[in-house]
Specification:
Length: 76
């Protein structure tokens, strides 16, 4: 398992989801991806995208006006 980070700051919907989707294509099942964004929409959009695409949401939090989502890449 490797840990990766995606900087989605200053991107508005749907770009954070699109960048997440593109980044996951480079990763292996079991890898962790931390997405950091400033658009509050990612707090709903990325978890919904994870459910549809078979990835596991590990954590979501807000810190210093940034939204952070940590997910585990699924095998889909």
């Amino acid at each position: 398992m490797k840990e990766h980070t995606l900087d989605a700051r200053r991107l508005l919907c749907p770009l954070p989801v699109i960048r997440t989707q593109n980044k996951i294509k480079e990763l292996q099942p079991g890898d962790q991806l931390t997405i950091i964004g400033t658009d509050p929409g990612i707090m709903q959009d990325i978890p919904a995208w994870c459910r549809i695409n078979g990835h596991k949401l590990l954590e979501s939090l807000t810190e210093n006006s940034e939204y952070i989502i940590i997910l585990e890449v699924g095998s889909n």
